[in-house]
Amino acid sequence: MEELEHKYEVVIDVTEDKQKLPDDVKKELKESGMMDDKGKLKLKGVSPKMLKKMKQEFVKCPVLKR
Length: 66
Description:
The protein is α+β, with helices and mostly antiparallel strands. Helix content is 27%, strand content 9%.
């Protein structure tokens, strides 16, 4: 399989700090059914351990520079 062309290469960084989701993102997650009323993420097919690991990952967007 040949590699697809890409414009940017994004590195996934890991932090020990908690990531705070903005209120507008929380609202979208609740509307789509991915978050319950208590603010807990619910993803089908993703174990709680994997979800915890994913919450500590972030990327620095090369387009928005943040």
